[in-house]
Amino acid sequence: MDTSTNRPVDSLNPGAQQGAPGSVAPAPRASSSRAVSRGSLVESEDRTRDKVRAAVLEHGPISAAELGKLLGYTPAAVRRHLDQLERGGVIEVKRMVKAGAGAGRPARRYVISSQGQQHWGDDYLDIASKALHELAALGGEQAVEAFAERRFAGMAERYADEVNAAGPDVEARAMALVEALNRDGFVANANVLRIHPVSKKPLPPQLTAIQLCQGHCPIQNLAAEFPVFCDKETEVFERLLGVDVRRLSTLANGGHVCTTHIPTGRNHQQERP
Question: Is a pLDDT exceeding 70 seen at residue 5?
Fold first, then answer.
């Protein structure tokens, strides 16, 4: 008697009867589900990393803790993405000491790197460079110098009230300038020089100084082509502080930081009868 009608039928593959010649067992679905899950996880990680990168671009210099609070992520999640972006050269770390905080470990602050700017598709520096070359061709170097002077006039206006509020003391004015620079993203700090670097003995009061360091420059590549921008910034520092300052290094010229030497001995010289 033919009992084929009593054989069970696979509900997912009605044509595959048990034991039928040429029948194919249904393919397992677990592996495909895991693949979809992994793909979704990678996509989510990429979106999160893009948010972290965008926040650094907009708010940098910024700490990991500040990023976590801003984006609503855990510190561990933020640091994981920051580490990967740093390894890829998209962001970089700047060490920052708060003005007037004294000795202590510098805080880590993140800024977008030059490579990161290019990755983001920001070509404004290339456009600015071409425009300045055209300006020089039409009006000579004096036209570029006048443009740079007007640009840094805005800095002098923004900082003047704050620096003047610090009083006549050069060191206090320099610390106020550092705070103002940090708000504009220059990652600045001040090193007070009262000890001779070799003898380790106290310097005479009239030789004391401050080295103002800037770890970030938003126009670094542009200033490398047109050093007049660095010169005009230095002149602004002189006017704000009321002393002759000297640039020791610049990021645009290959330095690790922009360093400005500010003599503070003027305070003691003025105290003489």
Answer: no
134 three-class SS: helix
CB neighbours of residue 99 within 10 Å: 18
Reading the block at residue 141, the tokens are: 């170097």
* CA distance readout (Å), 93 to 63, 85, 97, 103, 191: 9, 11, 13, 20, 19
Q: What is the pLDDT of residues 94-132, one digit of tens each?
A: 776 654 455 556 678 888 776 666 555 455 677 888 999
Could you count the other beta carbons within 10 Å of the beta carbon of residue 194? 12
DSSP letter for 257, please. S
Is residue 251 within 8 Å of 220, Cβ to Cβ? yes
**Residue 243 φ/ψ, nearest 5 degrees:** -135, 160
**Spatial CB neighbours of 12, under 8 Å, sequence gap ≥ 6:** 26
Q: How far apart are CA 249 and CA 148, in angstroms?
A: 19
Apex 218 CA angle, 114 and 144, nearest 5: 115
Q: Is 177 helix (H, G, I), strand (E, B) or coil?
A: helix
Token digits of residue 82: 């920051």
Residue 119 backbone phi and psi in degrees, to 5? -60, -35
Q: How far apart are CA 263 and CA 204, in angstroms?
A: 12
E strands, 87-196, in order: 91-96, 107-112, 188-193
* Torsion of the alpha carbons at 120, 121, 123 and 125, rounded to the nearest 10: 10
- Cβ proximity of 252 and 230 under 8 Å: yes
